[in-house]
Amino acid sequence: MSLEIYLDGEFVPEEQARVSVYDHGFLYGDGVFEGIRAYNGRVFRLAQHIDRLYESAKSILLEIPVLKEDLAEAVVEACRRNAIRDGYIRVVVSRGKGDLGLDPRKCPRATVVVIADVISIFPEEVYREGMSVITVATRRSRTDALNPQIKTLNYLNSIMAKLEANLAGKPEVLLLNAEGLVVEGTGDNVFIVRRGHLVTPPTWLGILEGITRRTVLELAKARGIAAVEAPFTAHDVYNAQECFLTGTAAEVVPVVEVDGRRVGEGQPGTVTRQLIDAYRELVNHEGTEIFVEEALQAGLKGGS
Ligand code: PXG
After folding, report:
1. Ligand 1 midpoint to CA 188 (Å)
2. Which CATH number fits domain 4-117: 1.20.1300.10, 3.40.50.360, 3.40.50.150, 3.30.470.10?
C-alpha cells in the first residue's frame, strides 16, 4: 500500500506527492529538513526537532508557511495515517517553486513535506561490537561558509565524506574542521571518554547541535557521568578510553577503531554501554503519543 504523504497542507498518496522541477530545493538545495524517530507509538523529542527546523529556516530567511503547532501535528498525523509505531519521519521545507535563477525572491511560497516511513538501521552487532571508522580528507564546512548548525538541504559536504567512507569500505567516518579538530560524523555527533570525562565538541566549532547529543548529555548528567563540551583532535580520539557517535538514525553507536588505532580496549566501553541502554530505555517511554484515541480506548477497556 502506498504511503500517505503530507504535501503543502494536505495528505496525498505517494504517487501524487510531486514537487516541481523548478523547486529551489531541487535546483539549489535551498531549504531545511529534520529527521525524527518514532518509537513504541511515540514521536521522540518532537518539539525540539520542530524548534530546530524553524531555527534553521530563520537562519536562511525562509518563512515556513505553517504554524509550529500545525506542523508538529502533521508529523503525528503522518505517523497515524501510515500506522507507524516505530519509524522515521522526514520533514522537508524547501524554498519552493521559482525560476531558473537562484534568487529566493522568485519563490513566493515554501514547499512543505512530511514523510513517515520505516528506517533501516545498523545491525545489532554494531552496537554490541562497535565499528571501525576513519578520518577523511573532506573537511566540515566552515561556519562562515555554510554553518553546520543549520540543517540545510545541501548535504554535499557530508555526502563527499560518505563517498570516502564507501571507497574505504567503512560504515561511517569522522570529519575534521578547517583547523583539524574532530567535529562530527556525516550524520552524527561524536563523543569520547578521555581522562574520565565524556567530551563532545562544542557547537561553535561547527557542528549540528544534535538532539541525540543533547539527550546523551542529559542522560550522562543524570547518571553522575562528568561531561564537557570541548574541542579535541584525532590524537585525543586515538588515545581515548571510549568513543561513540550519536544521531537520530544511528542512536548511540560505539566506535572501537579509528584510522587503524584501537580505541580503549577495542570494544564498547562501560560508559558507552550504559548510555546505549539509557537511551533505548528513554526513547521507549518518552514522546508525543501518536495513537491517542487508541490509547484512550485501551485505557478505558483496562478500566483505568
Ligand atoms: N550531525 C549531522 C551533520 C547530522 O546530519 C546529526 C549530527 C545528529 O543530529 P540528531 O539531531 O539526529 O541527533 C545529524 C543528523 C542518516 C541521516 O541517514 C542523519 C541525519 C540527517 C539525514 C540523514 O543517518 N542527521
Report:
1. 5
2. 3.30.470.10
Q: For residue range 227-236, what is the model confidence (pLDDT) as tens digits?
A: 999 999 999 9
For helices 68-81 and 46-59, what crossing angle results, to 10°?
130
Q: What confidence tens digit (pLDDT) does each residue in 135-175 have?
A: 999 999 999 999 999 999 999 999 999 999 999 999 999 99
Residues 6+ positions from 13 with CB-CB distance below 8 Å:
2, 3, 4, 5
Q: Whose CA is nearest to atom 2 of ligand 1?
A: 187
Q: Which of 68, 106, 151, 162 is catalytic?
A: 151
Name residues contacting ligand 1 (CB within 6 A): 35, 158, 184, 187-189, 208, 210-213, 246-249
Question: What is the Å distance from ligand 1's center to 214 Cα?
Answer: 13
Say whether 151 is catalytic: yes
- The dihedral sign for the CA sequence 238, 242, 248, 250: positive
Which whole number is the average pLDDT over 212-226? Answer: 98
> Domain-by-domain residue ranges, the chain?
4-117, 124-283
Whether residue 32 contacts residue 57, with contact meaning beta carbons closer than 8 Å, is answered with yes
- CATH class assigned to 124-283: alpha beta
Number of Cβ within a 10 Å radius of residue 81: 14
